[in-house]
Amino acid sequence: ELLSLPDELIVNILTFLPWQDILRCATLCKALREIYMSSIELQYITELGSQHLLPDSNNRISVSELLQLLRDNARAWFEFDLHSFETISIPDEFHLFTATYITNGHACFWNPSLDSVRILPILPQASQQTIKRDFSPGSLCGVANPSNIDVFMDPVQNLLAIAYSIEDAEYPFDEVSYIDLLTLDGDDTHPQAAGRTLFMLDLWLPRSREDFATRWSKLEGFGRHIAFLRFQPLFDTTGSSFASQWWLQIWDWQHSTSSNVSIVDLDSDRSTDFCFLGNDRFLITSYDLKLYSIEDMSQSPQLLACFLLPASVLDLQCFTPTSDIARSSHPRMQAQWISDPEHRVISLVSHSSDLDFIISSKIFFDDYFNPNGMSAMIPWMSWGPSNARIFLHHFPCRLGVNGSRALAAFPAAGATQDSNLVYSEYRLHLMDFSPSAVRRHQLGLGRLVDELSTVENCQSGAYLTTSLPYVEVVSDRTFSWREFAEIWLDKDKIYLFK
User: Strands, DSSP E only, in 433-481?
Assistant: First the structure.
């Protein structure tokens, strides 16, 4: 019998079970309950699983410390104190026309008109390992006269990716584009990269790189993948543009500097965006959501399913969690875990329809394999209402997402509108969509929202009802819209750009 074995051996056996089964075993009898309660390792496994996080094999601190960090992580969002804050000054050259990224306690400012980047830690602790870089104008690339298109930084992997192009006298016919992979804390080639430079397919680019950089391109990475999306004009023999299309290319940058993985059959008449859903799934947003498998990088992406959206939902912009790695501020900086791709939320914003979609990523990990090679077409009513929440998009409010949490600004009760339809006051709403937050909800710690909600699509006039449950905490402090021109969630911190 199991109970005849030594407790240490029973614990070892139970560690091979899924976390839900460990909890079930602990309810079978008093002896197993006592074994569970005395085992830090078993409690760590169940806490990790209930928060939908994945363990990191590189941890070097004790399991008891990890367990305490996890429990602190679960409680952190209830401490929604917006009266205790610090102000950080932003360099003057990055006040306007700047792309800003906040991730893992670092800020990256990129001004494409100046070709200048600055990376700095945000309120670091004395013992915290940080990265600080300042690229002066024109110093991003090691080649003469480059046109910098986009940058991407990943402090977790110490990665800086720079997309750029080189023109010659025969422009636009002989322009070549590349992506350089450097370390954030130096100018060396990234040690895990297959090479310093990723090579793009030969495609022609618009002459106005300022417009191209800010409007027509996107560089993003996740783990071992990097993807680049850009708007491609097509030219005739005289050099005049006569048509256009969207083009996207994906690299496994740790194993190859070239890529045959590209998607070019995209709708040129509609805006297009993309996001990674882990290391093997990829989502393209347009007038619908196309789910691709990128598990085998030797082949073209496999279209798994097409998720249809409500009618007249246009111009979708995709916002993904700002950081995949939750890293502790512990002095030894070794405690980390990875959020489960199946239990995050993504945000889609439709500016023309004035709608914000928050969607559980779990729906994109069902089995959509069809042996006949046909991808599934899934109507909105079959997948959307129970896996999403839709909110009215209030210009100029922004939405931040991190893991299973979302932060949005909504008009405060009694707020008035000006001639530009901007409200006088807003309150911040922090929403946690994780099943564990809903399951652990206690009276007084936020508000459980599990009832249906309905909003109107201003484009079609249709009413859309959704029901994805979440727990909400609302700030008691109000803000003007100028106090949150941008919103970021980064683990247990909130950043408001004013």
Answer: 447-449, 453-456, 463-466, 470-474
